[in-house]
């Protein structure tokens, strides 16, 4: 067999393996945005916590597929955790929140150094994380992605069996409409259904209970022009600017009713599941 044919055969086998490995997971949501820094990773981490609270504890995985800026472990307070390995197998880090984590961040000694990967290597690394991770018995997988709609996201979509749908994260600035449109048309090209838009940094709640919208009202335009409902409006809140720990965990407060961060994410999580079951 020529080197080329052998390479193609190996690639096809790896793809089949990654599809097989993810085919048993019932719900698979990919989180993306057309733009960096809008809160994809914070939203992914919080959706994980919300799903855990809603009964998926121990059955959720998060695949941090942003290999340039992997941040989920940091946001959940597991930045220095180590992945156990056995030959080619990788075991995800099990967090106390009942969320299993896999991230390139676990393989970096110096978390501050930027990773410089060339295109095909990036896809290969993501694919290897998918094929080698032993998730165990999982009901739901959340996939955090790098900014934009580039090759890596296309690669992820190819290597995961039947993605349930996408969550697009945006902020209510004027440019957001354009950015959401781009993300939505990208989803059409890769055949992944849009399951919900989450407007992050939507408002600030003042001490007197009133609301200020420093980024504007872009979300309303998104709903009008795209005919898509926003499934959650997440406030700007210090709970979301620091890693989760025992003193900063909106899901562990005694009275969840007073906690609009946790409530908003739990509502979004419920809607994502309902959208799938057609309720
Ligand atoms: N609603 C919020 N309230 C307060 N801080 C927030 C909120 N959303 C995000 N942040 C903060 O903004 C920063 C960027 O968020 P995050 O890393 O989730 O964005 P991202 O879209 O994943 O970025 P990148 O495109 O680089 O992956 C983080 O420091 C995060 O803690
Ligand atoms: Mg991110």
UniProtKB/TrEMBL annotation:
Keyword flag Translocase: no
InterPro entries of this UniProt entry?
Answer: Mrp/NBP35_ATP-bd, P-loop_NTPase, YlxH/NBP35
Q: Which one GO biological process term can you cite for this protein?
A: iron-sulfur cluster assembly
Q: What SUPFAM superfamilies does its record include?
A: P-loop containing nucleoside triphosphate hydrolases
Give the record's keywords alphabetically: ATP-binding, Hydrolase, Iron, Iron-sulfur, Metal-binding, Nucleotide-binding
Keyword presence, Iron-sulfur: yes
Q: Which Pfam families match?
A: ParA
Molecular function GO terms recorded: ATP binding; ATP hydrolysis activity; ATP-dependent FeS chaperone activity; iron-sulfur cluster binding; metal ion binding
Which parts of the sequence bind ATP?
34-41
The entry's cellular-component GO terms read: cytosol
Q: What does this protein do?
A: Binds and transfers iron-sulfur (Fe-S) clusters to target apoproteins. Can hydrolyze ATP.
Q: Per its UniProt record, what HAMAP family does this chain match?
A: Mrp_NBP35 (MF_02040)
Q: How does it assemble?
A: Homodimer.
Family stated for the protein in its record: Belongs to the Mrp/NBP35 ATP-binding proteins family.
Stated name of the protein: Iron-sulfur cluster carrier protein
Instruction: Please give the organism.
Output: Fervidicoccus fontis
Its taxonomic path starts at:
Archaea, Thermoproteota, Thermoprotei, Fervidicoccales, Fervidicoccaceae
